[in-house]
């Protein structure tokens, strides 16, 4: 073999990884002497370099980047309700985070979950909170409106004559204030908020709406002839949400208006000066005394049976159904009432 020492040198060069004239090695660069000329066979020019795993590289880069960007900045725990227990400031921040849930609402063309705005949301029931007034011992400060942030208030009706006030009426509790109006008159949203319930109650509110507000309260508007606002609508104070009427349990055109905190109604006249068309306070304190009448009405009450009493007559007197009487007293509609018997009516 001619020049065996030259072939041996070339083999040694290739084995230690020196580049050939046409091969590219990344990332290490080794300079070659200008005076040195190496002839490499054609079949060795297509040397197979170590494969670069692009997918693994990108995954590693992504995980490292995410940990650097989001470390200590993302809380994946359950978001706190926007409506706080003690809310002196208006907080109403929309969010772009999307979570798949059974019920969603649309605000400003952004689909968001109801939970991200509220701790509880149900468009079918008025009271969804199961709040035991007997255990409520706190003082809660509510800022009802704040012009600085653009949050206003509005009387729910243009006619401010009171037909019936909050409190006991005809043997049962009346949980709102009845304001006089004519059928077809506009009914206004009292504060900024979102419509939570739009429904019809044949034996009670008639056509009614419940709006949850930014200030932590809910308002109920009953006996309307027409509902305009829909569930999920974001309304501003003064927006027309319906038309007055006399639907449901009503003897004439009027607006039944309620203020509620955590599902419990309280006297609207504690907040409003209806005759003068004013709101009394910008900041209102919810205390246990706010719900004194509700607590009294929800206390178990009994009726002592007298001669001539019937289940139907007792039910009408206390504003309850016969089925409620039979359930509370574990009797049937065929049970014989005894004079002096105590029947639980609520």
Describe the structure.
This protein is of the alpha+beta class. It contains five helices and 21 strands. Strands 4, 7, 9, 10, 11, 13, 15 and 16 form an eight-stranded antiparallel sheet that branches. A three-stranded antiparallel sheet has the order 8-14-12, with no helix packed on it. The longest helix has 17 residues, at 54-70. The model is unreliable at 12-32, 45-49 and 64-102 (pLDDT under 50).
Element layout with pairings:
Elements: H1 4-15, H2 54-70, E1 104-107, E2 110-113, E3 140-143, E4 162-164, E5 167-169, E6 172-174, E7 177-180, E8 186-188, E9 193-201, E10 206-213, E11 218-224, E12 226-227, E13 234-235, E14 240-243, E15 254-261, E16 264-266, E17 272-273, E18 278-279, E19 283-286, H3 292-298, E20 302-304, H4 311-318, H5 322-329, E21 342-344
Antiparallel strand pairs: 1-2, 3-19, 4-7, 5-6, 7-15, 8-14, 9-10, 9-13, 10-11, 11-15, 12-14, 15-16, 17-18, 20-21
